[in-house]
Design brief:
alpha/beta; D-Maltodextrin-Binding Protein, domain 2; 5-stranded mixed beta sheet; 3-stranded parallel beta sheet; 13 helices; 11 strands; 15% strand
Length: 336
């Protein structure tokens, strides 16, 4: 009789655990990755690669499902992940590399504290590069100081808007930014149709999505945003070299936080520390896995990974940016 009661209790506990998850890691279940842009760009590509390879290193080999949430240059997804998503480890996110810049320079509409996200890691970090159609005649940075360049962007909070506007403020560059395009694929399509003459995009995205443009002479890079030049763009001017004063240099360094954050993956606030440690360790193993490396390079994508701890420090530095300089940058870039 006692044995029967114990078996019945055990069966009930098994059912309850299956229904409610018990203390099982969120990584044992389906994990959703909210992506701030569409499936056709680098954010989508690296998330898809992670969905394929990361489960091997997580308990239970969970299914990872990308959820694309474009809008407002990445702000829509950032607000959602911070305020709405589950905190049990079942939701991660690949948010805009400009989420810190947006929070500091355009806080209206921002409903997140970047310091309270926890970064898992970045599969790639890179400079953002302003490139133009060659037939526009705007084949150098000097050219856009004489003739206006019309550029595509997603929203006001995206690096495709913010970085070119900073470039115009720092120099004599004549730039008009047209927003409203959906992700990298939408902007690239506009450039292809000659609706715009160029755009700013991560260099890895340029080379992965439209590398042939640069090989065939359809497009040419004219400026880059980052702390140091990309190895294959040593002759393309860095925005930081245009800074005329120490304050301007500090502002450009802050704006270059996009290249430190990269195409990173993070958790919303309040996820259990044990879950964070488990997924960070799995991510660190994944980026060294020969199968993952072969898959990335086979898709003509790039490897320049960073740990979650590295990105966390970069975000904290950027979020501590001098408020007075932030106000100066806001006035210079947005005129208010």
């Amino acid at each position: 009789m006692l044995r029967q009661s114990i078996r019945a209790l055990g069966a009930m506990l098994t059912i309850l655990t299956a229904l409610f998850g018990g203390n099982a890691s969120a990584a044992d279940r389906t994990v959703t990755v909210v992506v701030a842009f569409g499936a056709g760009g680098a954010y989508g590509l690296y998330t898809q690669l992670m969905a394929k390879h990361l489960p091997r290193y997580l308990p239970g080999n969970p299914t990872i499902v990308p959820q694309y949430m474009p809008g407002a240059g990445g702000i829509k997804a950032s607000n959602y992940v911070y305020n709405v998503s589950h905190r049990d480890g079942s939701v991660m996110a690949s948010l805009s590399d400009s989420l810190v810049i947006t929070a500091v320079l355009r806080p209206k509409g921002v409903k997140y504290d970047a310091n309270k996200f926890t970064w898992v890691g970045a599969p790639v970090r890179m400079n953002n590069v302003l490139a133009m159609r060659t037939d526009s005649g705007l084949k150098s940075f000097d050219a856009i100081t004489r003739k206006e360049a019309v550029l595509a962007a997603t929203g006001l909070g995206s690096q495709a808007t913010i970085l070119p506007k900073m470039l115009a403020w720092l120099s004599k560059a004549k730039i008009k930014v047209v927003t409203g395009y959906k992700g990298a694929s939408g902007m690239l399509g506009a450039m292809e149709r000659n609706e715009v003459q160029g755009m700013s995009l991560a260099w890895t995205s340029w080379k992965t999505l439209r590398g042939s443009w640069f090989r065939d002479g359809f497009a040419v890079p004219i400026a880059q945003f980052g702390a140091a030049s990309e190895t294959d763009l040593l002759n393309v001017p860095l925005a930081i070299d245009l800074a005329r004063t120490p304050d301007e240099k500090a502002i450009v360094q802050f704006m270059s936080s996009t290249s430190e954050i990269g195409r990173s993956v993070l958790f919303p606030p309040e996820v259990p520390k044990a879950e964070i440690a488990r997924v960070r360790a799995a991510f660190d193993k994944m980026i060294k896995d020969p199968a993952y490396v072969a898959d990335v390079t086979g898709r003509k994508a790039f490897l320049n990974p960073a740990s979650g701890a590295e990105i966390q420090k970069a975000v904290a530095r950027a979020m501590a940016f001098d408020p007075a300089l932030a106000a100066k940058a806001r006035r210079g870039i947005y005129g208010k």
